[in-house]
Design goal:
The protein has 124 residues and is α+β, with helices and mostly antiparallel strands. Helix content is 53%, strand content 13%. It has four helices and four strands. The protein has helices spanning 13-25, 39-42, 63-73, 84-121; strands at 5-8, 30-33, 52-55, 58-61. Strands 2-1-3-4 form a four-stranded mixed β-sheet, covered by helices on one side. A hairpin with a 2-residue loop joins strand 3 (52-55) and strand 4 (58-61). Helix 1 runs parallel beside helix 3. It is globular.
Length: 124
């Protein structure tokens, strides 16, 4: 079976999440750097968001789906709990981060702060 190919950018929080799953499980993978809406990404994700995964005949988008696939398809320590209650708590927190925290804290403040710092450091 070929190595999983993660297509995205290391600048993406969600691409890094998928890479971390591979690292935790010692999965050899290939990271193919592509920008949002690159043809390789659009071929798998209908909205051109990253990351996407190619693994043999499997093509997936959305980091949580990719992480779950990798966790269940490869040997090694489980990333997601098998206990129903703990699995539900994990889903709860992943959902909260994806729907509220990422948009509010990361996109609004961190990225805005980075662009402000860049303008400041460039003398603008």
């Amino acid at each position: 079976m070929p190595k999983p190919e993660i297509i995205g950018s290391v600048r993406s929080t969600y691409t890094r999440v998928v890479c971390m799953v591979c690292e935790e499980k010692a999965i050899e993978y290939v990271l193919t750097e592509k920008p949002l809406r690159a043809p390789e990404i659009l071929a798998i994700h209908p909205f051109g968001k990253m990351p996407v995964l190619r693994h043999g005949d499997v093509e997936l988008f959305e980091s949580k789906a990719i992480a779950t696939y990798l966790d269940r398809s490869f040997p090694g320590p489980h990333v997601f709990p098998s206990d129903p209650y703990l699995a539900a708590l994990t889903e709860q927190w992943v959902s909260l981060v994806n729907t509220l925290i990422d948009r509010t804290l990361i996109r609004t403040y961190l990225y805005a702060g980075q662009s402000h710092f860049k303008r400041w450091s460039e003398g603008g």
